[in-house]
Amino acid sequence: MSDLDDAVNDLVIANRILAHEGVVDAFGHVSIRHPHDSKKYLLSRARSPELVAHDDILEFSLASDIVGERSGRPYLERFIHGAIYEANPEIMAVVHSHADEVLPYSISSVPMQPVLHTASECGHHIPVWDIREKFGDTTMLVTNQEQGRDLAHALGKSRVALMRGHGFAAAGLSLNDVLKTSVYLPRNARVLTTAIALGGDITPLSEGEIAARSALGPGGADQTRMIEYWARRAGVGDLLREKKT
Amino acid sequence: MSDLDDAVNDLVIANRILAHEGVVDAFGHVSIRHPHDSKKYLLSRARSPELVAHDDILEFSLASDIVGERSGRPYLERFIHGAIYEANPEIMAVVHSHADEVLPYSISSVPMQPVLHTASECGHHIPVWDIREKFGDTTMLVTNQEQGRDLAHALGKSRVALMRGHGFAAAGLSLNDVLKTSVYLPRNARVLTTAIALGGDITPLSEGEIAARSALGPGGADQTRMIEYWARRAGVGDLLREKKT
Amino acid sequence: MSDLDDAVNDLVIANRILAHEGVVDAFGHVSIRHPHDSKKYLLSRARSPELVAHDDILEFSLASDIVGERSGRPYLERFIHGAIYEANPEIMAVVHSHADEVLPYSISSVPMQPVLHTASECGHHIPVWDIREKFGDTTMLVTNQEQGRDLAHALGKSRVALMRGHGFAAAGLSLNDVLKTSVYLPRNARVLTTAIALGGDITPLSEGEIAARSALGPGGADQTRMIEYWARRAGVGDLLREKKT
Amino acid sequence: MSDLDDAVNDLVIANRILAHEGVVDAFGHVSIRHPHDSKKYLLSRARSPELVAHDDILEFSLASDIVGERSGRPYLERFIHGAIYEANPEIMAVVHSHADEVLPYSISSVPMQPVLHTASECGHHIPVWDIREKFGDTTMLVTNQEQGRDLAHALGKSRVALMRGHGFAAAGLSLNDVLKTSVYLPRNARVLTTAIALGGDITPLSEGEIAARSALGPGGADQTRMIEYWARRAGVGDLLREKKT
Predict the structure, then answer these.
(1) Does the distance separating the beta carbons of B216 and A137 come in below 8 Å?
(2) Prediction pTM value
(3) Distance (Å, rounded) from C-alpha C85 to C-alpha B95?
(4) Start-to-end CA span in chain C (Å)
(5) How many Cα atoms are found within 13 Å in the side-chain-facing hemisphere of A74?
(6) How many CB atoms lie within 10 A of CB C55?
(7) How far is the C-alpha of A236 from the C-alpha of C59, rounded, in Å?
(8) How big is the CA angle at D19 (ends D18 and D23), to the nearest 5 degrees?
(9) Within a 13 Å sphere around the CA of D69, how many CA atoms are in the beta-carbon half?
(10) Out of A118, A202, A221, whose CB is closest to D108?
(11) Chains that touch A (3 or more CB pairs under 8 A)
């Protein structure tokens, strides 16, 4: 198996996991930077993630034009992916989601903050991007590179940006990394929301704890366990392959 | 396949989707205007939507009398459908639902408002219809044309009316359109409810954003993707047919 | 099939429905008055409702002693059932549940009230029974006839009594009737809880609406549809039989 | 079957139950004290609980070193288990979970308290352990015996300790006992959270009720029913064996 085959296979698994864990539904998408060419990325044609199969994966330039052999109707909002890869060479995978639990923090003046150790990747300050600030009244969809770049700029070195009334964009140092962030961000939101409703004082993660967890780096055996579990639950355990860790 | 066959088939799929997505349960229903005769509509006999099959679909006049060849016990509340089709010739499909997430806004003085881009169809002002205002103490069911007309009047040019202590009625420019509204209205409610609980200021969609999204019109490839996904999840993917878009 | 066979069969279906709809879990139970002898009732031996089969159904006196041919370990809390049948000859079926959504109203000074048309059976005033008032510190379980009678007394002519920190007891004019009450009471609780969290004024059902709905009486074709749907969802559609309505 | 075989089998069932009931997910674990040697305990190698099988179960010393014949990569946080067994000889089983419903009480100044009869085991005062108090900024994981002992000290004679921003540790007098506590603690949290949101006064269990329930002791026929139900739901009903009660 080539690295490219592995990347495509991992991306199919990732689509199914995000659908099964409720992070994406009919809409939402996940991409991975091309393993051989950092100026390209891989993303499904416009299908709901639960239905994505190997043949649906297309190659895109960072300007989000289809550049590979395979063709198909692309997602309207693929510019979210291209612009984030363009802005930050460290980022290897991107998720765009509309998860219900996170959305309240995109429309409220109350900020999301990390309160769970499993959500430390999102950092202390989570930017909220509002397309209206620069582009006025739109359909709220990110449909060109200029809008994608504005979002990527708001994201900066953060790993998560909320999109007002729309969802979030998550960026990862690896595909497993962004899957973990995307699954645990909604849970962090749920726990924080409930804690706020309790009405007392709340203790978030400290800066030092976030730094200590960040120093662990992505990957490792814990993420392998996590992916195995999620893939089996999503019915794609048979797609899992032995990885050289 | 005739247009009528297609309409019946689409309506069966719609019943299953609404049941599987939790918009309807034992109760609730969905109809479509007759494709050949704008003075008629199609609706299942009185069955729970998850169980509806092709043979259950009956034809009704806009006065909600059974007029087709097939017969059966009709839903008590079919007048919701007939009266809305009668009042607004643009409307091609109607859903009546008791979704839990929406119901609080039907009994509270706090208004529902659109905060998600996917729920822009419901518009800035969502009317709440209270059967008691005109009809006094009733069983709260819409069981005659006069009550249906009163609801249709409250709905006006809006696409959603809440029904106090009962549920909502949604009207669409197409069947896919009303399915989208019916699935995303509960999510909009959930997100708004949580945002209110957070206690800060809330940013809803702007009038201009609602207008920009409305200008997109119904249908298109995104809705095809959505319906494919929902139909497969609901176990009726085999009923999907190629459509001339 | 005899009436007794039908009653046993209906009770098995009812157990499965309540489990599948999340009204009961490992614990909780449902009974029906004996169709031939109003001084007896039918209830499963001590099994989780999802696992109850025909052979598990035992006959009890109103003092909650096993009186039929079949024997087995009974539920500790069967006295809830016997005492309610003893107190009110109109009652034909009883459910005891720990549903999470209802429990907050059993420990809070904020009263439950009916806000959904589907929950009108619970009436305007829903009593909260606290075993500690008469019996002091106990295990909180209803383990003898005296405790059951105290609960039945608190219930009075109501159809639902909340049990502080424990759950609820629902009484019905028929088995279908008590199933409907038991499924929709948690939904009413959820909707009311959310409406309270919104912070505005709330409009409950009026006394007149409750009376109008009560006049409809139990049973009828709508409940048949409801039971068919729930039974099929619970995987016991094959147990359904044609009834003389 | 030997006692050791039974213990391993019970532990596999427990892993599946906790996964299926939503108490653990990709992460979290459950252990049992070795039936022949109180200085050892049994715990899976580092796998997600839903995937744990008989061959995954390893033997550990109370210092959390692997001591049995079988080997494998252990959970990083196994010290939670070893230290609790070391500190309290009464404890026969331990669960570590990240259940969302409980987590808000680990980061809020509002204390968890028992309000459901089924959650009486957690007692009136539930300690919240914050690893930062003694160890400063860490990854928040319990990765050595010193940290485990600090947690076990905070737990003391209680049966549950919350871990700030992380989850909870539950200790039981038997495996069934700790399963019950672990499943009902999240439910108690959910009910309490909702009751707090209602805004009125709340009645928790009394000290006397907790004592009366505690006097019932662990085990008994009710727990057998509960385990049978949960095991069947989790798809491991075939692993159940007749126990000498």
Answers:
(1) no
(2) 0.96
(3) 41
(4) 16
(5) 26
(6) 12
(7) 49
(8) 60
(9) 1
(10) A202
(11) B, D
